[in-house]
Every structure is written in C-alpha cells, then in structure tokens.
Amino acid sequence: MDFSYLFEPYDRLVSRADKSFERIAGEYPDCIACKPGCADCCHAVFGLFLIEAVFLKNDFDKLGEKEKAAALNRGLAAEKELKTLERTLEEFKDDPRMSAYSMARARIRCPLLSDDDACILYDYRPITCRIYGIPTMVQRVPRICGSTGFKKDQAYPIFNMDGVQKELFQLSKDLLKNVGNDAVDERASLLVSIPKIIKTTVEDLVNENPERPAVESQP
C-alpha cells in the first residue's frame, strides 16, 4: 500500500513539533529535563491516530529481526498491563475524577524502549513523544512533564497539541478515503496503542476497525 502522498504533510507536522521544542528549550534551557537515559515519557499511556500508526509500523518493519522480536515480547507485557488499566477505568466509568486520576497514574513501558532505556525508533518517534518535556495544550488543558522545571503558576509558550491532533485526524481521514474505507470519521477518530501497532500489518491497521483502547488521552 502506497501512502507516499501523505509523507509531506505529515513531515510538516513533525517539523513543526521539533522546531517548537527547540525554540522553547532554547528560551528556557533550565526548565528542560530531557536527556539521554531519561525515559519518563516512554511510560506514559497514549494512543496514536491511524496516520502515525501506519508510519510507525512502516519504520518498525525495517528493524532487524532480533530487535523486532524483543520489542514484540515487550509489547505482550504492555498489553497485559493495558488490559488491567482498562478494567480499572471500567470500574470508574461513572467517576470522571477517579478515571482521570487512574490514567494520570498509569505507567506502562513502551515496547519500543530497549533494555538500556533507548528508543529503538527514536528518529521516527510520534509527535507526542517529540513534544513531551515542554508545556503543551491537550484537551484544552495545559500540561507539563513532572520532571521539568516549568511551574504551573507561571506563563510559558505552549505547544498546541489539540491543533496537531485535528490535523492528524484529517490525515487519517484522507488515508482511509484513499483506500475506500467506510465510516471514515469514526475510524479516523480511533486511537491505536503502540503494542497493537507493532504486531499488526499496515494493511490490517488500515482495513480493520481497531478497538477503541483505554489509552485515548495524550500525555
């Protein structure tokens, strides 16, 4: 399946995210805690829109067999933890406060994080991973990484992840329309977990109706 027509618009979003991180890091260097070996964001719980899922899977498939096998094994462990989280969220489905608290407290290791705490697809990591560490706007709520020096009671430039998600949603719709999928809006709105992405073929990611995971919020 050829999705090269979507490379340029997706790359523009990636470039925007990288430039925003670099700009804010340059303005507030003492507030940035990101460094080699820091894997805080690699334990956050989130899902990816279809467009990013397809790109991530495409690059994952280019890894060596040993590296892929290790990641798939880590993915199995992560999926078990996600199932546990799903059950917890189901218990609190009528309690938004506890549901949000449970999501915020969840720490599940990304299967792309190697045993030496390095991302095996760092150059191709999703946008959520690229902007973790600077102030962001997610679901109209300002958010910061707990390890940074940014203070909640002070004003900083904010990366608008809500706007990027709208563009990722539109690119996902474009992808689905191109392959003739039905229920485009519904499918494009569903987020897919990284453990599911790496074990699923690109064709199946595009053609199936993925289950709505319990990991819909972005960190």
Structure description:
This protein is mainly alpha-helical and 219 residues long. The chain has one domain. The protein is built from 9 helices and 3 strands, in the order H-H-H-H-H-E-E-E-H-H-H-H. The protein has helices at residues 7-27, 50-60, 65-91, 96-105, 127-131, 161-178, 184-189, 194-199, 202-207; strands spanning 136-138, 141-143, 159-160. Strand 1 (136-138) and strand 2 form a beta hairpin. The longest helix is centred in the middle third of the chain and has 27 residues, at 65-91.
Could you write a compact summary of the structure shown?
The protein has helices at residues 7-27, 50-60, 65-91, 96-105, 127-131, 161-178, 184-189, 194-199, 202-207; strands at residues 136-138, 141-143, 159-160. The protein is mainly alpha-helical and 219 residues long. It has one domain (4-207).
- Structural class assignment: mainly alpha
Largest sheet: 3 strands, mixed
The overall pLDDT, averaged over residues, is 87
Task: Give the total of beta strands.
Answer: 3
Low-confidence stretches: 210-219
Q: Could you give the order of the helices and strands?
A: HHHHHEEEHHHH
Number of helices: 9
In percent, how much strand structure appears in the residues? under 5%
Strand order of the largest sheet: 2-1-3
Backbone CA Rg: 17 Å
- Helix share bin: 40-55%
Tell me, what's the shape? globular
Distance between the termini: 31 Å
Return the domain count: 1
